[in-house]
Amino acid sequence: SNLTVERRFYLAGTYICQQAILSGRIDIYPEYTGTALTAVLKESASGDRKDVYQRVKSEYERRFGLTLGPEFGFNDTFAMEIRGEDARRLSLKTLSEAAAYAPHWRAGFGYEFMERPDGYEGLIKTYGLHFAERPRIMDLGLLARALKERQIDFAGGNATDGLIPALDLFVLADDRHYFPPYEAVPVIGAQLVKAHPELLPVLDALANTISDSEMQQMNYAVDGQHRDPEEVVREFLRKKNQSR
């Protein structure tokens, strides 16, 4: 596409992005299907990946006049993390197993996770989690390092966080399937679709092009190595084009 793009970063989550696209302040943004289902549509977090995608696609069109593009290919689900050394020492693999140790742990979560319907309250009820003290609310970008530095013992992060392998953190399995799929998709405003329908095939070409591990590696390049995001994306696209 030859369209000129004005990028607006740091919009601080789904709620602000949703209002921005409905008011016409932005034309397109990436969303997660599970977030759209529970936080925006206020529906139950049930169904497999395809079912959730179709429900969100249909309801976004019906309620908001917004078009859902194809899945990019990675599932950025919530990741409940502990230090790798603790997971190995205690032989922990799942959230159910970790519940017995939670009363001795200090937890940390992002603000949005504490507020949203598929977040903290449902998690502790599903797994019977009780922590040593009220969870600390922190910026998502600080959680992994706070966990590594023993400021907290349990963190609610994201599965594609590049610092998870870099800091030897361990993601506890959601063995009771509390979280829905969080497949990344583009949400496209009605005015953009009307004015530039040629954009849709361009977005279609991005379907299933980014795996979980590739997204995690790019996140680490930016968050862990402090590289420029645009440079990281261009490098990724060059490699993708060469592999075709």
Brief overview:
With 244 residues, the chain is α/β, with parallel strands linked by helices. It has 13 helices and 8 strands. It folds into 2 domains: 92 residues, D-Maltodextrin-Binding Protein, domain 2, CATH 3.40.190.10; 95 residues, Osmoprotection protein (prox), domain 2 (D-Maltodextrin-Binding Protein, domain 2).
Explain this structure.
The chain is α/β, with parallel strands linked by helices and about 240 residues long. It folds into 2 domains: about 15-75 and about 180-210, Periplasmic binding protein-like II (D-Maltodextrin-Binding Protein, domain 2), CATH 3.40.190.10; about 80-170, Osmoprotection protein (prox), domain 2 (D-Maltodextrin-Binding Protein, domain 2, 3-Layer(aba) Sandwich), CATH 3.40.190. The protein is about 45% helix and about 15% strand. It is built from 13 helices and 8 strands. It has helices at about 15-20, 35-40, 50-65, 85-90, 95-100, 110-115, 120-125, 140-150, 165, 190-195, 200-205, 210-225, 230-244; strands at about 30, 65-70, 80-85, 105-110, 135, 155-160, 170, 185-190. The strands form 2 sheets. It has a 5-stranded mixed beta sheet with strand order 5-4-6-3-7. It has a 3-stranded antiparallel beta sheet with strand order 1-8-2. The chain starts with 13 loop residues before the first helix and ends with a helix. The mean pLDDT is about 95.
